[in-house]
Automatic annotation (TrEMBL):
Catalytic activity: Specificity close to that of papain. As compared to cathepsin B, cathepsin L exhibits higher activity toward protein substrates, but has little activity on Z-Arg-Arg-NHMec, and no peptidyl-dipeptidase activity
The protein's name in its UniProt record: cathepsin L
PANTHER family referenced in this protein's UniProt entry, alphabetically: CYSTEINE PROTEASE FAMILY C1-RELATED
MF terms (GO), sorted A to Z: cysteine-type endopeptidase activity
EC number: 3.4.22.15
Species, as recorded: Drosophila hydei
UniProtKB keywords: Disulfide bond, Hydrolase, Protease, Signal, Thiol protease, Zymogen
Keyword Signal part of the UniProt annotation: yes
Length: 331
């Protein structure tokens, strides 16, 4: 297949490869790379049609990127044969998290004379664990909670310890917590659970398996504890930057619609009306091409985006609700 393709490309000037030929080659390569197999011919036909629509959208966007009209690039990935709604159900859990039910009375606001540094990257200080992968489970909220706590715990003790998302997923998805396991939840509520529970186990002692099982928290395996949960002043990007600079990595919630095909650069596109994904802000900065950005640690594996990270536009009117639900623990 590859050899045939090369011949076609070499002969391309004379042969004039049609868009359909290119699409077919890309479709075959896509299926192979992502190990796709479909139930029958009619499902394959449907998947190919969705792939084609997404590919056209990606190609158009990337042509604008190449022309300097966009600040971020898109890419084909394992989700390119899925509708947005399917993606949301599989990776986000589909819960609309716009209203956060967790009561938090402690609100962070920077003191008026606090000078925000021009850039921060907590990875360089060793406060960030490796990028993780939530798999086909809407458990982003457990990863965001673990991520901010891992950072806060490191800054207090000097020990960077991977904490157990599975502990949170299994134990904080039942009464009195509003979280719904793999169907979604709130990082604020996860931190609340850890505070009330007297800690969360280490990842090593309570590993992740991407579905909700029975709670088997073990007090002897606690990796970190939480004294208080703090909310950053709602919608205030300035307060969020100050909190990141002063306290370290912070859990945030956003709308993930444009993250599906994000490859690199500073994502800058308006969102619609839903908060459905949690990540960890591990820094911020300024990019010559993309302007001010937030540096976000995602939980979709290190192959996605910029080695598992996403840069998203900062100071663009609370883009995709980035500063609407920012929380972190005091340890
Ligand atoms: C999500 O919830 C908010 C607040 O309740 C609401 O305004 C918004 O329309 C909802 N979004 C969707 C897509 O249902």
């Amino acid at each position: 297949m590859k050899a045939v393709l090369i011949v076609l490309v070499i002969a391309g000037c004379a042969l004039a490869l049609s868009y359909e030929d290119v699409l077919e080659a890309e479709w075959q390569a896509f299926k192979k790379e992502h190990d796709k197999s479909y139930q029958d011919a009619s499902e394959e036909q449907l998947r190919r049609r969705i792939f084609k629509d997404n590919k056209e959208m990606i190609d158009k966007h990337n042509a604008r990127y190449a022309a300097g009209e966009e600040t971020w690039e898109m890419g084909v990935n394992e989700f390119t044969d899925m509708l947005l709604e399917e993606f949301r159900a599989q990776m986000l859990g589909g819960l609309n998290k716009t209203d956060d039910p967790t009561e938090i009375h402690l609100v962070y606001k920077p003191s008026p004379n606090f000078r925000i540094p021009s850039s921060v990257d907590w990875r360089k200080k060793g406060a960030v664990t490796k990028v993780k992968n939530q798999g086909h489970c809407g458990s982003c909220w457990t990863f965001a909670a673990a991520g901010t706590l891992e950072g806060q715990h490191f800054l207090k003790t000097g020990n960077l310890i991977d904490l157990s998302e599975e502990n949170i997923l299994d134990c904080a998805s039942q009464w009195p917590y509003p979280n719904q396991g793999c169907n979604g939840g709130w990082a604020s509520s996860a931190l609340d659970y850890i505070k009330n529970n007297g800690g969360v186990d280490t990842e090593a002692s309570y590993p992740y398996y991407a579905y909700q099982g029975n709670c088997h928290f073990d007090r002897r395996r606690v990796g970190a504890t939480v004294k208080k949960v703090v909310r950053v002043a709602k919608g205030d990007e300035n307060a969020l930057a100050a909190a990141v600079a002063e306290y370290g990595p912070i859990a945030v919630s956003i709308e993930a619609t444009h993250l599906v095909h994000y490859r690199r650069g500073v994502l800058n596109k308006r969102c619609q009306n839903v908060i459905d994904h949690d990540l960890v802000v591990v820094g911020y900065g300024h990019d010559v091409r993309g302007g001010d950005y937030w540096l976000l640690k995602n939980s979709w594996g290190k192959e996605r985006g910029e080695n598992g990270y996403v840069r998203m536009a900062r100071n663009r009117g609370n883009l995709c609700f980035i500063a609407s639900q920012a929380v972190f623990p005091l340890v």
